[in-house]
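Our consortium's second objective concerns turning raw sequence data into structural hypotheses that experimental partners can test. To show how far this objective has progressed, the report includes one record in full. It was chosen at random from the queue rather than selected for favorable results. The single chain below, 158 residues long, was entered without modification.
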Amino acid sequence: MSASSEHVESDTEARGESLPPVGLSAGRWVLFIVGFAATAVSLAFGFIWAYQGRTVPVFGAAFLAWTGYLTAHYGATGLFIDGGDDHGDARDVDEAGLVPRERWRRIGIVVGIGTLVAGMVIGVVSIRQEQYLFTTIGGVLFLGGYVVAHYAETDLLL
């Protein structure tokens, strides 16, 4: 580690802006990544099939997308469905209770939302062109942006 990176880390920690650890085991990471990928691919294919008017496969894709999301959620949180607000407030906010005080959280939320929106745009254009690969990339960006913003807001991947 270089002296400049040590300075950045200590400066960030001194302001209370160190990133909290995600804390997932290898098995939980596998569930998260496999579920995330299944969701992105299923959504991409389902949207293109819907555009093509293929109704029956869309139901299968929707089922796989939700199954993938629930698997990723279980990998990230240990729960298939959140059971209430037992995590507390993971962040320090301004007086209005809306804007996180920590700079990395504000950046994470903005970058996550920007990535999510970019994924939507790429996905919509790709659906109309029936491009499975680029529709999947749009889905990965959409879901990835959601994960980044959610983590910056709550300290949880999903």
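The partners drew two points from this record. Residues 55 and 105 are 41 Å apart (CA to CA). The chain is about 70% helix and 0% strand. Both points have been shared with the crystallography group to help prioritize constructs.
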